[in-house]
Amino acid sequence: MKRFSKLTIPYIAWAALMLLLPMLLIAVYSFTDQGNSIIPFTFTLDNYVKFFTDPDFLLILWRSILIALKTTVLCLLLGYPIAYFIARCEEKTQNLLILCITFPMWINMLVRTYAWIGLLSEGGLVQRVLSLLGLADGELLYTEGAVLLGMVYNFLPFMILQIQTSLSKMDYALLDASADLGASPRQTFRLVTLPLSLPGVVNGITLVFLPAVSSFFIPKMLGGGQYFLIGNMIENQFITVGEWNFGSAIAIIMAVIMMCLMMLVRRIEARNEGGKGERP
Amino acid sequence: MEQKKLIELRNIVKSFDGQLVLKGVSLDICENEFVTLLGPSGCGKTTLLRILGGFLDADEGSVTFDGKVINEVPPYQRELNTVFQKYALFPHLNVYENIAFGLKLKKMSHDVIDQKVMKMLKLIGLEGFESKNTTLLSGGQQQRVAIARALVNEPKVLLLDEPLAALDLKLRKEMQYELKRIQEEVGITFIFVTHDQEEALTMSDKIVVMNEGEILQVDAPQDIYNKPNCRFVANFIGESNIFPGVMLEDYHLRFDDHDFDCGCFGFKKNEPVDVLIRPEQIEIVKKEDGKLTGEVLSSLFKGVHHEIMVETVPGTRVTVQMQLIRNQDVASEDGNEMISANNFYVDIEDVEHMDDREIIALSNAQAWNPHTDEFISIAHVEYDLRAEEGIYPVVFSTGNGTRVERRIHVVNQPVVRNERANEAVMAFNFVRSVDEIMESQALDTDLRTWAGAQGWKLSDEETSVELYVDYDFEPDEVKEGVYPVTFETTGHEFKVYTTTHHEEGQEVGLFFPPEAIHVMPHTEY
Amino acid sequence: MRQKKRPVGKFMMAASICFFYLPILYIVIFSFNESKSLTNFTGFSLRWYLHMLESHGMMSALYTTFSVAILATLISTVVGTLAAIGISSSRKIIRDLMEQVNNLPIMNPEIVTAIGLMLLFITFQVERGYTTMLLAHIAFCIPYVMLSVTPKIRTLDPNLADAAMDLGASPFQALTKVVVPQIMPGIISGALIAFTMSIDDFIISYFVTGQGVKNISILVYTMSKRVNPSINALSTLIILIITLVMVLVNVLPLIAKKRERRDELTPRRMVVPAAATLCAVVAIVALLSSRQTDTGLPYAGQTLHIYNWGEYTGENILSDFEEETGATVVMENFDSNEQMYIKVANGESYDILVPSDYMIQRLIEEGFLQKLDDSLLDCWDKLDENCLDLSYDPGNEYSVPYFWGTVGIVYDTTVVDYEDLEAEGFNIFLDEKYKGDIYLYDSERDSFMMALKALGYSMNTEDEDEIQEAYEWLVQCVQTMEPEIVTDEIIDNMAQGRKALGLVYSGDAAYIMAENEDMGFYLPESGTNLWTDAMVIPANAQNVELAHVFINYVCDYDGAYDNSSYVGYTSPNAEVMADLSGEGGDYEGINAYLPRTDNENDEVFVYNENTKKTLANLWSKVKIEASNAN
Lengths: 280, 525, 630
Prior knowledge:
heterotrimer; B: Immunoglobulin-like; six-stranded mixed β-sheet; five-stranded antiparallel β-sheet; C: alpha/beta; D-Maltodextrin-Binding Protein, domain 2
């Protein structure tokens, strides 16, 4: 196979240009204060200082993380039982159910989110049903709840698919072994199934949390203009305000925070895996 | 020794997707027994074990454990533990946690758990491994952990599902002793599933031979080996010589055209039976002292003994002439095409089945471009064949008109029949070029094809008999000329284990005492 | 395994399926709705489908989406597979490095990748449009293809390719005949992922597109502010296409399998029909979206690029113009002057822009516009003089008005006391009586105008203290009044009476009042913004002559009437204005339609770079405050 290694060279060039350079450009922009041009380059930390010295910006960041956390937790709580249910079905049924869940994902995300505007707005189906049940008074659209719903709606399938994959990869003999050693189904779930599905859970969390933090069209469509998250802030800086340097700085800050959070999650997962823990 | 019955399986039936996997199995298992379920894969042994463990529900029948029917009891409430095929160690727990898993569920206090786990680690010889990651252990070590994990719960019965299958040979032998030792030490019932007959013979108190969802025989290892109750068991366990025979009367039977005394009785008069003689129970003696005589076909040294094949009934053979000629490739006028073909022989009876493709194949007609070595297809074959003996011309030509003429010999080839061995063989003379012999990748197969050699059973012409090829030339240095080629079948052969060497081709006698002959009801295959 | 009845699991499964499919069902049903309502189904009709088929923008978005997806899938699958094979046979250090680089678009928030690519294209001065979108899609699809192909390569016998070459295959043959068939399942799933990613992408496309090139996501995003059931029709069409593809992919192989009784499914069998369907779809859409050009007309074959506000043209004006001139009109929409400015300032070329007054002033100052050629214009005497010769462009050297009007308060006459309005003016937006019942408009210009006017200052003030005061006024508003900050959705929402008060452009107010007679329009005595949106020709316009023709066309009675009656904004054409507001006109008795021209407190916006920046930053902080107040 060695002789195929020269196939790599054009791709390395491409990747450097289309994947690596853009990231470097963001970084360069975030450290300049020359309007929307990077030549001549003058180094400054102003953009970062501006972000970190303003409690309002920090609050936006915190709220973005918070709603992403809420989304992730909700997706986990809803997704796990569904994934578990699917993974325990026969293979044919499994494939069918997975198809059912992936099918909507093929339809444009914005189109599906747009549909929720009609469903949630006053007089819309969901709003009417909920107020009949006495669960909602007044407006649903343009609230945090609507944003949360939109996020869960869009990202739940990722969670289900990840967990289902890791559950169906699990060796069923382990469940038998657990039952054999005297664990009731509940205990088996707690002591064997759950820990072994953790990699899937972690992947699911990544796939939900990441887009949820940076999402800007869901808050804009379902939360209204007064619902502002970090993603909207970046969009705003680039599309409306035109301050690319500050926008780049926010993007870098967000990317770094996400990377740290993801590393943290992976570390927690690694600790749980492999039975490397010391004797109790 | 009468033991207390611990497990009673009654008429267990189980099917998957309409396929019957267990066809009404009944079995008793006693306390402190080492019972082996033995059979080829797919025989239902693992299914039976899983029903015992509670992982599967039987469609019909009852499982009684210690006097109580436990069909409805879930696995986690059964007093049995299982060692799984690939161990099923929890990958997220270390060795200690794996072993302590069952004890923790029973809410035992920490020091008790500690004590028991340590005892187990000692039993399996893995002290000091407690905080090791199970996925990093060797196969044998994982195996021991799996056993310890099951045994620590002090079950009355330990189920082992092919636990040694994943180990290499040396380790497997080691673990066989180890398992036996552990079983003797803890003194509980082991139910062991395997497809390895040697493993079963080595370890078991009792072997249950299964095939196709049924129990064929339940006996102690010696009895299973010496007195198998059918051809399947005899074949499955140990090496065996099995022949069809006829029970003339009690203690007398006939096979290979000879009458013999034997220790068997209880069959009907002239009942067809299968006769088993184990290789180690046959002695090679002088020709005149033997109960049967034959020719030594081969002798293999196997360390402790020689494995000698003796043919008592000879095979059937036919010898044909192979005529080797110089290459007779014909070139086209412009030199861009080459064509070649051979004369060949056909049986009168086969003439009517001849078509272009068959003739091209039999004559090995080929055309090619000598510059590029690319093949060119043979476009036309012209011939006029009749079902009469004689020589007929045939012309092969390519699309560009390059042609070559050859002859087809239609002959009435006699069939060699061997009534005693119930066989017939037949083959034709043939013509080939020297190059074809030299270039042949698999000469035996090619010779069979070129000679159209076939062998079949007289009683059933559809059943073909394998033919061996014999010739007396060096394929690498062969020259033009005529060579004899022989095609033959093997005769009745006996496998014999002796301590002495015997030359191939030597005429010898075979001796075996009447007790060595074991008679089983005849089974058709 | 013991099968048990699992009622909870079944319930959750069923509920989740309902959850996932409810919006899809809703889209399909409401695409057949007779009325414009998104909440009440009033009857069956196909009008939104007709509307969609007639809409140039929708069909070309459909075409863009699918053609980009197919091309990006094809290219990224081939390149990704080859690169994955290459990288797997490279040294470990290269493997690890490339894995990290490939992870960039996967592990980074999409918006980061998006702005990175946008900055890349801008830095290298690549004009953004279809090509950049395609390049971006290929860039983020390849890593996904590699992610799915690489594990398959790892399981491959490393001697396989060598064996093939030993038997006489060239390296290329070894690759195509041995290696590729072995990893086919990985390649196919990679291609499927790439296709899904591309067809679903919004964020990256949104940032790297230009020249009016939109995919469906961008279209929905920019159109979703106004009620537009055509989106439902378009979505239903997409759902139909995707369903067809999925059925083909999933069902056809089953049928083929049954027919041939073969166990092994060649992957080709499921991909070929799917790919064929998709290509057919693209071809059909391409046909629908391309228009026949009549060569006999004066401007046949020419293209006019217009950059205009969304929902700012009459129903027929563009198609009529095309019919009359033979030219093709490509219209791109913007949400705000600032958004438009950024594009123009970055060198994108249009023939006509429709910015607002202060922005025109800025564009003139910064040299982005060219003077109009009066010899080509015949419109001046048709226009109302109140909207001519204003401070932003004295003498109308650069601009011809498109719409004009004021900014005022739309109020629900059944909820709001007229006396409160008279007494408080814009300060009614601080009146806690109406807490939770107000809309603000998401524009720093209009919001600060409101605040400054409420405080009695000039809206063109440069006094920092006054601006700071206005900022505090707005912060107080968002912190105490729970306003919703909206853009164009205010129009439909006010028309349906969802809130009692809203800051609205007079033209939108006219539309709202025409729809809902309970609504009133009030202009505070403290003054307001007298604004004009006007047509200008950028300095880098490519078709100046056609641009002049278009300006004439818009100012002409028919064009102006179509525009004004459909959009609801006041036409600068005096005759049209009189007809529409006069007896029997669409806006008879609607005070919002006729701009107030007699209040000396009313002002025209003056562009000032410093205040502009201050206001933009302050306004984004107001929004952050609003968001944080929740």
